[in-house]
Design goal:
Elements (H helix, E strand, L loop, with lengths): L1 E5 L2 E3 L5 E8 L8 E6 L6 E6 L5 E3 L7 E6 L4 E6 L8 E7 L2 E2 L3 E5 L2
Parallel strand pairs: 2-11
Antiparallel strand pairs: 1-3, 3-8, 4-5, 4-9, 5-6, 7-8, 9-10, 9-11
Length: 110
């Protein structure tokens, strides 16, 4: 399993970003996929999980702002992030079947 995350960058507070995670070594259509993040000096935390049928759940701090989606035909998962805040600054990782992607850095700053 290999996971390639991308889409991070610098964004101002209130801005948006869309992260992508492309998985290879699958197929993964019958497994859950997840996004985690690790802020500087903090432990890695779960952001949200999407099941094989597309149902997603989120940590309270991102509910209403973040949306996880997936395309099973392309083994790809996305994280759409809206109204980003400085506390969302972190390295974001995708996680599938016990494997981690390399992470993509999101920095929210004015």
């Amino acid at each position: 399993v290999q996971l390639q995350a991308s889409g991070g960058g610098l964004v101002q507070p209130g801005g948006s970003l869309r992260l992508s995670c492309v998985a290879s070594g699958g197929p993964f259509r019958r497994v859950a996929m997840a996004w985690y993040r690790q802020a500087p000096g903090k432990q890695r935390e779960l952001v949200g999980v999407i099941t094989d049928d597309g149902s997603a759940q989120y940590v309270d701090s991102v509910k209403g702002r973040f949306t996880i989606s997936r395309d099973n035909d392309r083994d790809t998962m996305w994280l759409q992030m809206e109204n980003l805040q400085p506390e969302d600054t972190a390295v974001y990782y995708c996680f599938v079947l016990g494997h981690w992607g390399q992470g993509t850095l999101v920095t929210v700053s004015s």
